[in-house]
From TrEMBL:
This is Large ribosomal subunit protein uL4. Residues 49-90 are annotated as: Disordered. It comes from the Bacteria. One of its GO terms (cellular component) is ribosome. GO terms for molecular function: rRNA binding; structural constituent of ribosome. Belongs to the universal ribosomal protein uL4 family. One of its GO terms (biological process) is translation. Part of the 50S ribosomal subunit. Residues 67-81 have a biased composition (Basic residues). One of the primary rRNA binding proteins, this protein initially binds near the 5'-end of the 23S rRNA. It is important during the early stages of 50S assembly. It makes multiple contacts with different domains of the 23S rRNA in the assembled 50S subunit and ribosome. Forms part of the polypeptide exit tunnel. The gene is rplD. Keywords: Ribonucleoprotein, Ribosomal protein, RNA-binding, rRNA-binding.
Length: 213
């Protein structure tokens, strides 16, 4: 039996209700474990790590070719190199070396994580659908005004678009805590990282259309 579908209001830029939209039960009524969201977030954070950290071992540090003093009869401990890890300026023991931190999750886990994350956001009333957010020109003040009318000022908000919109991106990028993403690039980490999600009507339709395919 497929999960029960839900409905959500569609609003305009002034926060006035313009209609309703049905939401896919498969996307917004998931009964998957919350652990899949955790796995997706851990994977996303791991994939952001460059792994370019490096330290020099005793074989990589310059100098140390000459024995600092003779082996015997000095009253001092035996040493063969001033680049030993116990010497100041010597090499590092077991220090970090370049490595790949990336984690690749199976496609079904990524889909389950996105669905569960959306389900939890909807249950908390943190998903909004507006008919359109298109702007005639890039203007941060206009975007801030729209978010204010939607009751989202000062919140971490992710705006999900049907396709790339330069004006929306440029208008939102200087507002602290506000992000913009295409619906095709939406993932569980994005959903979890923001307090509120604002979908355009076309983006929500495309998200559910992709799920049906």
């Amino acid at each position: 039996m497929s999960p029960e579908s839900k409905t959500i209001e569609i609003k305009d830029k002034n926060n006035a209700v313009k209609g309703t939209m049905s939401l896919s039960g498969a996307l917004f009524n998931s009964d998957a474990s919350e652990s899949v969201v955790h796995s997706a977030v851990v994977g996303a954070l791991a994939n952001q790590r460059q792994g370019t950290h490096a330290t020099k071992t005793r074989g990589m540090v310059n100098g140390g070719g000459k024995k600092p003093w003779k082996q015997k009869h000095t009253g001092r401990a035996r040493h063969g190199s001033t680049r030993s890890p116990i010497w100041r300026g010597g090499g590092t023991v077991f220090g970090p070396q370049p490595r790949d931190y990336s984690i690749r999750l199976p496609k079904n886990i990524r889909k389950a994580a996105l669905s569960k994350a959306l389900t939890m956001k909807l249950a908390d009333g943190e998903i909004m659908v507006i008919d359109s957010i298109a702007l005639q020109e890039p203007k941060t003040s206009e975007m801030a005004k729209i978010l204010g009318k939607l009751g989202l000022s000062g919140r971490k908000v992710l705006i999900i678009l049907h396709e790339h919109d330069k004006n929306t991106l440029l208008s939102a990028r200087n507002i602290p805590g506000v992000g913009v993403v295409r619906v095709n690039d939406l993932n569980a980490y994005d959903v979890a990282a923001y307090n509120n999600l604002v979908f355009t009507g076309d983006a929500m339709k495309k998200l559910q259309g992709n799920e049906e395919v």
